[in-house]
Amino acid sequence: MNVLIGITGSIAIYKTCELIRLFSKSGHNVRVVMTQAAAKFISPLTFETLTRQKVLIEQNEDWSSELNHIDYAKWADIYIIAPATANTVNKAANGIADNLLLQTYLACPAPVLFAPAANTNMYMHKTTQESFKKLTIIEANAGLLACGDEGIGKMADPEEIYLKALRLINKDNFWENKKVVITAGGSVEKIDDVRFVSNFSSGKMGEALAKAFYIKGADVTLISSKKHNLSKEIKQIHVQSADEYYDAILNESPDYLIMAAAIADFKPKYTPGKLKKDSIGEQMILEMEKNIDILESLKEKNFKKVGFKAERDEKNAINYAKKALKKKNLDAICLNLLTKNDFGSDENEIIFITENDSTLFAQNSKENIALKLVDAVKRI
To answer: What is the reported pTM?
Structure first.
């Protein structure tokens, strides 16, 4: 994908370096166009180093080459203006093109995403708010601003902008208005109020799936025992126990449930307060009881259900997965072998199993595996 980044004169410009890195790291081509004011904060050389491409700025526009606002605009698959000052937002909304960056905006046939950064009063001014309605923006964050004020106006985090841009380019009409609930992490079952039983699940696969379904255009909710740095447009619900996972799923009423969380098979008998070691003695023996099987408890619900199964027994893993698929009335199950990718790995290999078929998604990053799984789930 060809990504054109427009940079205006804001202290938030330092975040744009990280935004460029995210696109470059993912294999996308990046070019930059800057205003004169932006160059007062960071020189074009910085962005040329990051992109390995010539930065387009007033002084170097060249009509004997592609280094001009028309060719840069045609080249782009998406144009992201980040940071976008209030001045730039209001001009763009009214078709004013009095600098190179805005001329590029008017000449660009591709989707354009604005990431505003401004003082709270400037951001909330009725003129600016009206301008936002005419443009595709990613809402700023609230917090302590560079000017010392507290309020909304901090440019969205680079990861948020990155995901929003990918969603604009990759959204699939199939997923529009589809509610997808994804679970992640491992359940946390209390022994008392300071101790618990859990597992090694990192939540990385669930997080990757939340991003993938969001990028494809779904309405995504992530239910997890872990903390995740995701877009504000992805709803997050923090839970601990299996019962909390179950209740949260029911409250969301999904169209699709992707059950990537690792739920404890057994839970300890809970004792309020703190068990004192002096009263326990030399050995602590936990009384355990069978935990709720969430997917089996939901098997009569009328929504699509995809389970996950982690196995170390390579010989019997597929048979175990198929039994779980049938027993829990699942539409599909994702089998991953822990002998190849243990908990916490950044990569995975998945066998996607349905009643009549199975597909191997070979070793890859969890982000890329997740995108393939979205397409597989679409077909069930």
So the answer is: 0.92
Domain final residue, candidates 137, 167, 197: 167
* Segments forming the whole domain that contains residue 20: 2-167
CB 333 within 8 A of CB 306: yes
Considering the domain architecture, whether residues 263 and 347 belong to the same structural domain is answered as yes
**Measured in Å, how far apart are the chain's first and last C-alpha atoms?**
29
Residues in the chain: 380
Picking from 167, 182, 213, the residue at the C-terminal end of a domain is 167
Q: Any known ligand binding at 265?
A: yes
pLDDT tens column, 228-264 = 989 999 999 999 999 999 999 999 999 999 999 999 9
Which two tokens mark 133? 């309605």
Is 304 annotated for ligand binding?
A: no
Task: Give 286-320 pLDDT, tens digit per residue.
Answer: 899 999 999 999 999 999 999 999 998 889 999 99
Residue 41 assigned as binding residue: no
Q: Is 149 annotated as a binding residue?
A: no
Report whether 1 contacts 29 (CB < 8 A). yes
Q: pLDDT of 31-87, one tens digit each?
A: 999 999 999 999 999 999 999 999 999 999 999 999 999 999 999 999 999 999 999
Report the C-alpha gap between 346 and 259 in whole angstroms. 19
Q: What is the CATH number of the domain that holds 373?
A: 3.40.50.10300
Q: Say which residues have a Cβ less than 8 Å from residue 1's Cβ, sequence separation at least 6.
A: 23, 28, 29, 77, 78, 169
Q: Is 276 helix (H, G, I), strand (E, B) or coil?
A: coil
Q: Mind telling me the catalytic residues?
A: 147
